[in-house]
Amino acid sequence: MAREVIDLISSSPPPPSESPPLFVDGEVPSGQRTESCVSQSHGVDLECLSDEFDTTIDIDELISLPSFHKSCYANPTDNTTSKNQLNHISIETADATRQRVIQETITDIHSDDFDITSENDEPRIYEPTSNGNKRRRVSEWVKPKEPPTLENSDPFCSSQKETPSGGAQHKKSLSGNGPVEILSSPERSPTARSKSGLPLTTIKNPRTTSYMTSFQSSPDPFKSPIPQNIPCSNLPPSHAPSHVESSNPFASSPEQKRSKETAPKAARFPDIEIVSSAPSPPRFTSNIASRQDWDPISSSAPEIGSHTLSESRKQKATAEVTISVDSDSSVHGFESESDEDELPDINELISKPRKRSSLHRSYSDNFASKSRSKASKPTKSSVDRTRDRETKAAATAAEKARKQRERELDKAAKARDRERAAALAEVNKIRTDKKISTPEMLVDLSASLNPTTRTQVEPLLKALDVEFSTWESPVDNVVKWRRKVTSRFNEDLGHWEPVPRRIENEKHVAVIILADEFVQLALSGGLDDHVSKMTEHFPNHQLIYLIEGLHVWMRKNRNTRNRQFVSGVRVQEGAAPSSSRRRNAPAEYVSEETIEDALLQLQVMHDALIHHTTIPLETSQWIIVLTQHISTIPYRKQKDLATMNAAFCMESGQVRSGDNPKDTYIRMLQEISRVTAPVAYGIAAEFGTVSELVNGLESGGANCLEAVRKSANKDGVMSDRTVGQALSKRLHKVFTGRDESSTDV
Amino acid sequence: MDGDECANPQLLAWVKEWLDVARERNSKGFTTYKHAYDSLKACPITFQHPAELQQLKGFGPKLCERLTDLLKKHCQETGAPMPEHPQARKAAQNKARGTSESAGQEGSKQAKTRKKKSYVPTFRSGAYAIVVGLSSQSADATLGLTKAELIELAQPHCDASFTAPSDPTKFYTAWNSVKTLLQKELVYERGRPLRRYALTDEGWEVVQRIKETPHWQAENPQQPPLAEPEIGPGVLPAVELDQTTTSEYQNVISDDPNFLENGAFPSFTPITLEPGTFSVQLLLDVREVRAKTDRDYMKEELAKQGVTPIMRSLELGDAQWIAKCNDASMLARHGAEGDEVVLDWIVERKRLDDLIGSIKDGRFHEQKFRLKRSGVKKVVYIIEDISMDSGTLTKYEEAVQSAIASTQVVNEYFVKRTTKMDETIRYLARMTAMLKRTYERKPLRVIPTRALTANNYMSLIEHLREKEPSQGYYVTYPAFASMASKSEMLTLRDIFLKMLMTTKGVTGERALEIQKRWKTPYNFVKAFEGCGPGEQGQKRKRELVSNEMANLIGRKKITKPLSLRIAEVWGDV
């Protein structure tokens, strides 16, 4: 789980998180998208989308965003895409005021996040409320490169076209993170709250949900076959959100869904009042309002008011809550905590909606800050923010800004801490796996290396992400290794620490020798010279001799001997000498003994490792294999050292683990010598758990298991045989013994 | 050959047909066809004639023949010319080249002379050995030799075994070549029920000529064949049998944990064995057998190679070398026991199928672990090939490769691959000779056993190696055996570690960390009980381990879910 945390925090902007629930989520929306896309007969984008969903899901980045990003990048002119997620929600909800309110909340949240995302995002964020969004979004999404056509097709927003185009410049900067987080935040708050210390997971949920909603909504105007959308739009306000829930894979039981749904709604009610001032043309107004934030000319009072209000509220809330939230999220991995645990809490939340709303904001902020630190453009956003506020309400804004700055400072410090923790976690990743450690290697191939081998090795190394170089080796055909060292093991603290990257030589060096060359060396006695040349140039290195084709050579050699023998026999017979063969002078037979002794000499006297290969391809493969394994050496060595003071091999797979607590208990018993499966099951039938067993043994004495019957099978049928005195005593010693060094067990 | 990705679409289609039929009928031939289909599909070479397919994996003569028939039919139907058989083509090419080289007459002469050439058995093959073996009888003895007698005489002249198949999955031995000899009429057999073999006149001629060759003379210097010293199965080589049980060495080494815990090494005066007072010998594990029915094969074969192994049940490894004192009481007088000193080398022999098996079930790691703990400096892994199902072999090829490479570079063990047991035996024999040469020249320094404890052994050895890398320090065999058997002895701590590791997610490193905090199972259970009852207690139990170990990072970190899993097992949550 530590891993996931690391990923989250790690510096790369879209950190892939591997939490299983997410995948489920991701898949649902992708499927839906597919449908809508298909209706447009556009398959290309879909593939990408679905791909993204299946493989890696960014927690911080919107789940839906990857696709949008793509399209955006591909075509900077269409800015709507980024918005889209928001838009659909608004569209759906348009029918019901309350839903609209929800939208607003969302927008608010967006504003909150402005600092996080670049200013360009702001306009877009507000735009979502426009009626045309839904359509546009769908179309753009499908065909990002042809925005105009798409817009035209959009019945709702002919007037809105300009807006997207105007915003287009900003497209590039498009920060998916901002909107995403915002979206998720309203939904998230309830869930997050309910969850104990697993904010991240929760966050994922809401986002996914919101996206899904959007997807569902998008087909709506076209009367696409997706049933969920229709009910949503028709539903009374209170029920409106339910469709979101339905799409949420996490809410497995209807009850949970209910509770979740209600909770967020309640939270949003305060916002509703503000927004409701212009409910009749909901989309339009809201749209304008949103635009105003960035467009000073066309400002509408109600919108602003709502904005500021919500903002300030948010801010306060965040300020209060941030710390606790932060600590929570940073300390605990979000990984495997199950949603079920958290669900019951949601019900409680419903009763106190207010608090929750603040909470959720803090969450969004929290995440925003995180994403910001990743994006590494915090200053810009903060500047934006301040300016924004000044136009609205100077006093409040100033106050806010101050708080904001404080918070940011706070956050920056925290972010630094997190970065440090992430770096630490990064270098402590398990690198005994060669796949992970291999890219650390640098392979130096001697310039004299056989070109065949070289051409084969290079692509193989590239495939493994291993750098290589050519060097003028003092001895022919030498391959040596270097490592990019980024961590150092701290013996005292028992973990790896990041160190500035440096290149270190590995202590292995391989030399490739062809069979013929080797035989020559063996015959001429030049082998010793060769070895001493190697050790002279590579002192304290482990020599690896890769001998190519010696087996074939041996076979040929044997054939030579036989040919000589046969011809020797035939000569006496009077047959024509076989020297008339078209071959040149027959090879001289070399005694196998000489070769074998040379090999042994290399092994025994010179302590070299020898490996035989048959053809250049195998040699190249072997270079790769060696590279991979050499890369794991420091980590393996360290691991061996760590487990050295246990008297048994701790490699994975040495001790079999159980599937559930009961099974684990039974396997645990079997780790005691002479405890067989029947005995273990028999004891487990008598004492169901470890603590019962310990207490039983404590009170019952050494012989209390003596009469326990062994089981005949796993179903609990007992046989006539009993555990016996000796074993009972042994178990007693194990479970009540307090001397760890006792060997009497 | 249109744009299909396969180079031989027509042939492939036929194979596919067979494959489909086999699949429909659920025939056992399905796998065969599948192999053939896959390999043909993958092959980028375009073949002219189905007979060429034999070079592919999964194609044998029969499949090629059937394909040839199909192709013939196909050619007749379409009127296309039937491609020439590759051999015929080759012959034609040869001919063409012969004439073009204006050495045409030589080429044709060659073909003729080849026909005339008499049969000569391959040097040191079964047939060769049988002929030579039979020649040890006098020419006028008409009775002939029985199979058993003949094998006894012939074996020294042959590289392959007459009695044991080259590997346990095969059934033929070098003896099978007698059929060729009978067919070529170099040997005749007669007699019922016990067949006897003798050379024909032709056979005698061949033998005479064989004996004139330098090769034969080199193999059999000077002496007349009859006088050749033979070690037959009747005369068992004198093998020292030393069936000591492990318990004998069990307590040679003290295991007092407090003995020199402070890290200071005991000062001792090494016992020095001067060259000439000892000899290097091979110890072979009694369990190293060729087959259940052929337990002594290795021992006998080694004896034939001039190395008489001491058979013993070894604590570790399958073979190792010791220096045995000529004076049995020599070591005892200086405060060590026994008369054997363990040298640096130990051998672990693995047949390829065993290797794969042990990789699969984790024994491979375990064995390397034990070898490592033994403190032996040089470990040799002999990996003996065995003919295996090619499918299985390809499946595990990567695992085997990986295992070999990691054994070499990570464990720094020497890996020797041999093709069959005979090669292993030859290697051991040669190695023994080499070690004899190496060790018997210089004095051996032996650490008195009383300076050793189970705890300081490894570090002491390391320390001495570092201090005087050129000087070897050795321990006596009893001390070594005791150490090796001790390493298998588990303390309560080890059992607790194992018990902890039965929970999924508790790795060795985490288990060690847990054990650092709660020493024994009892302490651990009591710690959970100490969390108290009720909701609060449950919560405390759930977080007991993770809270206690919150400061750890990386591999040692214990997450909440894992903590919960542990609590479920140990704390009844």
Automatic annotation (TrEMBL), chain A:
Subcellular location as annotated: Nucleus
Polar residues: bias regions: 150-163, 202-219, 226-236, 244-254, 360-370
Entries under InterPro entries matching the protein: EME1/EME2_C (IPR042530), ERCC4_domain (IPR006166), Mms4/EME1/EME2 (IPR033310), XPF_nuclease_EME1_ascomycetes (IPR047521)
Chief location: nucleus
Ranges of compositional bias, category Acidic residues: 336-345
Residues passing through the membrane, by range: none
Keyword entries, A-Z: DNA damage, DNA recombination, DNA repair, Endonuclease, Hydrolase, Magnesium, Meiosis, Metal-binding, Nuclease, Nucleus
Domain of life: Eukaryota
Cofactor(s) this protein cannot do without: Mg(2+)
Keyword check for Hydrolase: yes
PANTHER family recorded: CROSSOVER JUNCTION ENDONUCLEASE MMS4, EME1 PROTEIN
Family that this chain belongs to: Belongs to the EME1/MMS4 family.
Name the UniProt record assigns to this protein: ERCC4 domain-containing protein
Lineage: Eukaryota, Fungi, Dikarya, Ascomycota, Pezizomycotina
UniProtKB/TrEMBL annotation, chain B:
Keyword Nucleus: yes
Compositional bias segments (type: Polar residues): 96-110
Region ranges (Disordered): 77-118
Main location, first listed in the record: nucleus
Stretches assigned to the ERCC4 domain: 281-387
Cofactors: Mg(2+)
EC primary class: hydrolase
SMART domains in the record: ERCC4
Cellular compartments annotated: Nucleus
Keywords annotated in UniProt: DNA damage, DNA recombination, DNA repair, Endonuclease, Hydrolase, Magnesium, Meiosis, Metal-binding, Nuclease, Nucleus
This enzyme's EC code(s): 3.1.22.-
Annotated InterPro entries: DNA_pol_lamdba_lyase_dom_sf (IPR027421), EME1/EME2_C (IPR042530), ERCC4_domain (IPR006166), HHH_MUS81 (IPR010996), Mus81 (IPR033309), Restrct_endonuc-II-like (IPR011335), WH-like_DNA-bd_sf (IPR036388), WHD_MUS81 (IPR047417)
Function field: Interacts with EME1 to form a DNA structure-specific endonuclease with substrate preference for branched DNA structures with a 5'-end at the branch nick. Typical substrates include 3'-flap structures, D-loops, replication forks and nicked Holliday junctions. May be required in mitosis for the processing of stalled or collapsed replication fork intermediates. May be required in meiosis for the repair of meiosis-specific double strand breaks subsequent to single-end invasion (SEI).
Assembly behavior: Interacts with EME1.
Family stated for the protein in its record: Belongs to the XPF family.
Identification of the protein by name: Crossover junction endonuclease MUS81
Organism from which the protein derives: Bionectria ochroleuca
